[in-house]
Amino acid sequence: MPGSERREAPRGSRHGPHNVRLIVEFPNLFIGPFDGILGFSQGATMAHLLMARSQLNPEPSLSFKFAILFSAFKSLSSAHDSLTTTNISGIPSFHVCGQADQIVNCQRSEDLAKMYTDPRAVIVHHSGGHCIPPISQIKSQILEFANNLNI
């Protein structure tokens, strides 16, 4: 499948959750804390990497109580191997994928959603492509998810 090949991280690479952590952690420290994290596409993948990192090394500034991820996928970078094999437990997650998405197909989003255990991930499909769908298409599911959060 195009776009799903593993990639070696460039030598000395500074890409990934280590730098992005600062982007998320900074506002969380000064205007947070935030209960949850939301991401779309690469942003959803980075959100997942941050949560996986926090599972391995808990950090109070990155302790989210839920995640909402649109068109998320496992990172293809070899630099993230330890994070893409880490199961996420204790964090409810809501995953949305588009059935007509030609960039991140639903199988890739579903594969990432399987990493969320206890509670199991909620997976919702919409009819569109690589986008956050109109709220009308996912309203009942997202309300049910939110109502079940214990925060």
Describe this protein's structure.
Residues 32-141 form the Serine hydrolase domain. Belongs to the LovG family. It holds the Pfam family FSH1. With 151 residues, the protein is α/β, with parallel strands linked by helices. The chain has a single domain (31-147), classed as 3-Layer(aba) Sandwich (Rossmann fold), CATH 3.40.50.1820. The chain has helices spanning 17-31, 42-56, 81-84, 106-113, 135-147; strands at 36-40, 66-70, 88-89, 93-98, 116-117, 122-126. Strands 1-2-4-6 form a 4-stranded parallel β-sheet, with helices on both faces. It has a two-stranded parallel sheet with strand order 3-5. Helix 1 packs across helix 2. The protein is globular. The model is unreliable at 9-13 (pLDDT under 50).
Secondary-structure blueprint of this entry?
Layout: H1 17-31, E1 36-40, H2 42-56, E2 66-70, H3 81-84, E3 88-89, E4 93-98, H4 106-113, E5 116-117, E6 122-126, H5 135-147
Parallel strand pairs: 1-2, 2-4, 3-5, 4-6
What brief labels describe this structure?
151 residues, alpha/beta, Rossmann fold, four-stranded parallel β-sheet, 5 helices, Serine hydrolase (FSH1) domain-containing protein, hydrolase activity, AB_hydrolase_fold
Q: For the terminal residues, how far apart are their CA atoms?
A: 39 Å
Count of the domains: 1
Main sheet: strand order = 1-2-4-6
CATH class: Alpha Beta
| Rg (C-alpha, Å) | 15 Å
Number of helices: 5
- Label the structural class: alpha/beta
**Low-confidence parts:** 9-13
Helix % is 25-40%
Strand percentage lies at: 15-25%
What would the average pLDDT be, to the nearest integer?
Answer: 85
Shape: globular
**Major sheet: size, sense and barrel closure?**
4 strands, parallel
Q: What letter string, H or E per element, gives the SSE order?
A: HEHEHEEHEEH
Assigned CATH superfamily? Alpha/Beta hydrolase fold, catalytic domain
CATH structural fold name:
Rossmann fold
- Number of distinct beta strands: 6
The second-level CATH architecture is 3-Layer(aba) Sandwich
